[in-house]
């Protein structure tokens, strides 16, 4: 499966929370796992999800990973990109839910979704 991963490295909030370092680590890990031909890692601007910064988006699954830490990168690569399993605990937003929440442990929504 060809994937594209977008990392906000140009918005006002994500870059203050190490999004550039996260993108650099992601690119390095993708290369180390031999996935460079099938996974593109691209920088972009604000997603409008600043309160959950830093964020990244994975296509074609339509998965948002939020409130990321540098140490989360390896888990995303190994479980999601290599293993094909979404890392639920890092998913804090889903456009498929009316409230925009996905139920991951980084979900800061108060309605229990
Ligand atoms: S600054 Fe990253 S989502 Fe707005």
What are the key terms here?
113 residues; alpha+beta; Glutaredoxin; four-stranded mixed β-sheet; 2 helices; 4 strands; 17% strand; binds FE2/S2 (inorganic) cluster
Can you give a write-up of this model?
The chain has 113 residues and is of the alpha+beta class. It has a single domain (3-90), classed as Glutaredoxin. The chain is built from 2 helices and 4 strands; from the N terminus they run βαβββα. It has helices at 19-32, 72-82, and strands spanning 3-8, 39-44, 56-59, 63-65. It has a 4-stranded mixed beta sheet, with helices on one face. Strand 3 (56-59) and strand 4 form a beta hairpin. Helix 1 (19-32) crosses helix 2 (72-82). It is globular.
Short description:
This protein has 113 residues and is α+β, with helices and mostly antiparallel strands.
> How would you characterize the largest beta sheet?
4 strands, mixed
Name the beta content range. 15-25%
Strand order of the largest sheet: 2-1-3-4
Shape: globular
CATH superfamily: Glutaredoxin
Q: How far from one another are the termini?
A: 30 Å
Could you tell me the number of beta strands? 4
Q: What would you report as the Rg, rounded to the nearest angstrom?
A: 13 Å
* Structural class by secondary-structure content: alpha+beta
Q: Secondary-structure blueprint of this entry?
A:
Blueprint: E1 3-8, H1 19-32, E2 39-44, E3 56-59, E4 63-65, H2 72-82
Parallel strand pairs: 1-2
Antiparallel strand pairs: 1-3, 3-4
Helix pairs in contact: 1-2
The structure holds FE2/S2 (inorganic) cluster.
